[in-house]
Amino acid sequence: MIIVYIILVLMIGGLVAWFAGRVSPNFARNFSLGTSLVAFLMSIVFCIQNYNRSMEGMAGAWMVDLRFPWIPQFGISFHMAVDGLSMVMILLTLFLGVLGVLTSWNEIKERTGFYYFNLLWILAGIIGVFTALDLFLFYFFWEIMLIPMYFLIGIWGHENRMYAAFKFFLFTQASGLLMFLAILGMAFLNAYKSGVLSFDYFDLLKFQPEGLTGFLLMGGFMIAFIVKLPVVPVHNWLPDAHTQAPTAGSLILAGLLLKTGAYGIIRFVVPFFHEGAHAFAPYGMILGAIGILYGAKLAYSQTDLKRLVAYTSVSHMGFVMLGVFAFNPLAYQGVVMQMVTHGISTGALFIFVGMIYERIHTRDINQLGGLWEKVPKFGAVGMIFSMASLGLPGLGNFIAEFLVLAGSFQGNKIITAVASIGLVLGTVYSLRIFQRIFHGNKNKEWDFKDMTWREVIIMGSLVIAIALLGWYPQPVIDFVKPAISTVLEQMTTIVD
Amino acid sequence: MIGYSWLIPWLPFAGFLVLAFGGTKLSKKMASMIGAGSIGLAALLALIIGFQFMQSPPENHYYNLKLWTWISIGGFSPSIAYHIDALTIVFMFVVTFVGFLIHVYSAEYMHEDEGYSRFFSYMNLFVFAMLNLVMADNLVLLYLGWEGVGLCSFLLIGFYYKDPANGAAARKAFIVTRVGDTAMALGLFLLIIHFNTLDIREIITKAPSLWNTGSALPTWIALLLLGGAMGKSAQVPLQTWLPDAMAGPSPVSALIHAATMVTAGVYLIARTHTIYELSPMAMTAVATTGAVTLVLAGFAAIAQYDIKRVLAYSTISQIGYMILALGVGAWAAGIFHFMIHAFFKALLFLAAGAIIHALHHEQNIFKMGGLRKELPVIFWTFLAGAGALAALPLITAGFYSKDAILWYAWSSDYGSPVLWAAAFFGAFVTSVYTFRMVFVTFFGEVKTHVHHPPGMAMTLPLIILAVLSIIGGFIELPHSLGHVTLFSGFLNNVLPEVKMGHEEGSSEVIFQVITALTGLFGIFLAWNFWFKKPAMLYKFKSSSFGAGLHEFLLKGLGFDWLYDNVIVKPFVWLSNINKNDITDKIYAGISRLTVLLHDLLRVTITGNLRWYAAGIAIGIVLTLTIVLFL
């Protein structure tokens, strides 16, 4: 039940923060911080409770499985369950959620209460997405996380916020609609075949539609997820949304929303459509490789720091796409690791750029330069996270990229070899981020203060997280192992 | 004691943490104490462990120390674990011992610079990464060290970050080596497919039973790993980053870009030697890479003005010798040259640094001159290093280490007259450029006066290294001269002996005499052209052919030009014209189309009743037509 409570805490906390914001913005801030911290602690407790059980492989892959009737006439139930994969994603969500509240502290000065309401509701929606096992409920949460996000970009964003918010909304809504059609199609066709109307994950798992029907249904899910991931060429909403969103918005977009796409592919597309996924695999891997290279190339030419970081996300998510369609444990562990470490490292880069913007009100790379001398703490953090972004060993991203490439190399050598050029291009753009800010001549004399304590805490916790994952990633690997092997076992039995 | 060997890398790491967090709060004295002290302790420990290892070698001649399991997925489970055998000990000793001397030197050399503790923290991090590279028991941890030293190299080349040119050099070093690293990573992925492990000992013991000699897979793997070695060890065609890397402070050039990091490729190939032995083609590729590199880089060195660039090209060339030795199966000879080279090249860089320091950042050798009397200690130590580099017969260590390589390039099973000729010619070129540097810098008239003679902390390391550059060779003497095999004997549990093939009818002594005489002739030429009769050379350089040749050599034989035009410029161009992402046009097009349709349909909303009536009528007629007739 704790998982439902976490969602409720976030939702109720959001409502309270909204009303509290009318009284005092500071109260809204503190209350949201408290709420997110409580939720984070609850998830840690939950994680510890289930750690041993999952280690011993007791309850199978699923640690918790809750089911209440909701609309029984249509076979819709309130069905939530947590396995290792969900657990890891929930922890990431709430960790970044707490940091999101902290980064907004001084940035958001207008309609503070409503802002925190949106922020907390997005988190609730994301956790719902990571746990829902009824497809109707899943779609419900999918929408819950989008609409507050639209507000976040549209109200508190930067200069071109309305354009970005519309673009984000249209891309995700249109693709979400296709998914909804596919969900309905799955449920009705399954009812036609088996005689029982059900939106339940486990019921629909047995359906395994084939041929054209299977292709169309898979397409509906796939499009929603690859738009979210995003995969080139449906990535266009991302650079605008990330650039225009407030810092916490970019953090949550890059750190969490993109991951729901990856999660969707692993949780729904591959298990629902074994045959289709297998047939699609080479194309999926090619799309992944294109994403890696094209994203990296675009990142290199950007002069807006936030946009640059946004395109690095496109490149990094290419690794997810590449690995997901390799169907082996190395690649899948790599994909999950990439979801976690990219969330941390890219989130950190967005916060970092946000801190710079807060001080000098520009994101233009040409106005920066030579800042190392003045702000060494910034320099160290910028250094660490640009190294994470290029996949330096010792930081978590290396484990992710190494495993993804090692795994997908077993799937397809040529595509993976081409994709690995991304390692070189990653170096090219990551060094550019770092050097253009800190090396070279000062282009302007900025009144630039080094990090405050609040900022040191935010960045310090991110640095510790990424370094821990680089040197001791095994707990995450152990945690997600049962979930991954379930997906892969089904896959291999069907294909063989 | 060997159980404490994990402290050897982690002591410098502890030093790094203190320096990184202490930052500017630490006094200069504290910073240098922590930096040099932690490396000194590591060097001491490495020495003790080395001696114990020699006296009572462990069973199977290696010792394995596991700290923790890093990743474990299915059967694939690399650990943070160290493997210590004779090869590791040689590298461990060089890294910590030479590293310590360079740290001591730096304490004085860097004293006037900003970012003193930043410098030592990077140097400590470098030693940590380098030790992980050479001590790793699996290739993932080796790769961690491999990339880690790359990072430190980047940070230290760009140490004087305010000059954008240094930043560019740092970036170039990182990116070019990353090209090689990516090839190496693919090699690792291939190994994972076939062994499901990256444990080095397991791979090299299983490989011969898994594959036949000459089959395709070991060739692929060996060539991909060679790609990594080319990047890190600056071999043609990935050598272009090293001359520019001289933008870093001189101690950095000595430690990273001469003695240790750039020899990582040599270590990698020696470490995985059984894979290479399974592929004659890969062996040929390795030997050819080394031979081509040593000649080309030697030529480029002749034309350089900047003393550090001369030494940089010389480093590329000398690593070419090591790679050549590996390529002809003379594993121990390659490693021996690595060790001797570490001594004399670190010495030459440190001495060059002392000169630059004394002459207020003057690096052009033609503005130096006459320093023999002004800086006598530097002169004599530099001369010892230069003698070793030019392989001055009998008295220098470089003679013994290089002579072995030349001999095996001819006589081993993989050797050939062509490889020997390249190595021989390279040796001649080496003595020319080395003594050109000596004559121009230390003889003739004084051109710049000494401002700042070096102190004890700088001269003492020079003297120690000079002694090693002379006597270091006596632990390994050829058959013809005493036949001492202390070094190769120490290594022969790890690296196999040379397979001889072409020694019939040729005597090692004759080769030695020819090589020695040619080396002396090279010194004579250098004396003649750059000291006795510089007018002759001046005349040649004024001719259009001479000027062109000089420019070509000075610019490193056009590799930079080629890469710039074929790779860098097209990439930047492509990236800039597509800055706004062409695929965005699709969606902009969709939205424009929607607006267009909207505008078109809006025209019909006129508010005019007659139009509406006419519209309805036409609609009815059309509908009826379709229903009735089609």
Q: Would you write up a description of this structure?
A:
The complex is a heterodimer of chains A (496) and B (630). Chain A is mainly alpha-helical and 496 residues long. Chain A has helices at 2-23, 25-55, 84-103, 112-131, 135-156, 161-194, 201-205, 211-228, 237-244, 247-272, 274-301, 305-324, 329-360, 376-389, 396-411, 413-419, 421-438, 453-471, 474-495, and strands at residues 62-71, 76-83. Helix content of chain A is 77%, strand content 4%. In chain A, helix 5 runs antiparallel to helix 6 (161-194). Chain A is globular. Chain B is an all-alpha fold and 630 residues long. In chain B, 72% of the residues lie in helices and 2% in strands. The longest helix of chain B is centred in the N-terminal third of the chain and has 32 residues, at 164-195. The relative contact order of chain B is 0.07. Chain B has a two-stranded antiparallel ribbon. At the A-B interface, helix 11, helix 13, helix 14, helix 15 and helix 17 of A face helix 5, helix 6, helix 25 and helix 26 of B.
Q: How are the SSEs ordered, and which strands pair?
A:
The complex is a heterodimer of chains A (496) and B (630).
Chain A: H1 2-23, H2 25-55, E1 62-71, E2 76-83, H3 84-103, H4 112-131, H5 135-156, H6 161-194, H7 201-205, H8 211-228, H9 237-244, H10 247-272, H11 274-301, H12 305-324, H13 329-360, H14 376-389, H15 396-411, H16 413-419, H17 421-438, H18 453-471, H19 474-495
Antiparallel strand pairs in A: 1-2
Chain B: H1 7-22, H2 28-55, E1 63-69, E2 79-84, H3 86-109, H4 116-135, H5 139-157, H6 164-195, H7 200-210, H8 216-232, H9 241-244, H10 250-259, H11 264-271, H12 273-277, H13 280-302, H14 307-327, H15 331-358, H16 371-374, H17 376-389, H18 397-411, H19 417-442, H20 456-471, H21 486-491, H22 508-532, H23 534-542, H24 544-554, H25 559-577, H26 584-603, H27 609-629
Antiparallel strand pairs in B: 1-2
Helix pairs in contact in B: 1-2, 1-4, 2-3, 2-4, 3-4, 3-10, 3-15, 3-20, 4-5, 5-6, 6-8, 8-11, 8-13, 10-15, 11-14, 13-14, 13-19, 14-15, 14-18, 14-19, 15-17, 15-18, 15-20, 17-19, 17-20, 18-19, 18-22, 19-22, 22-23
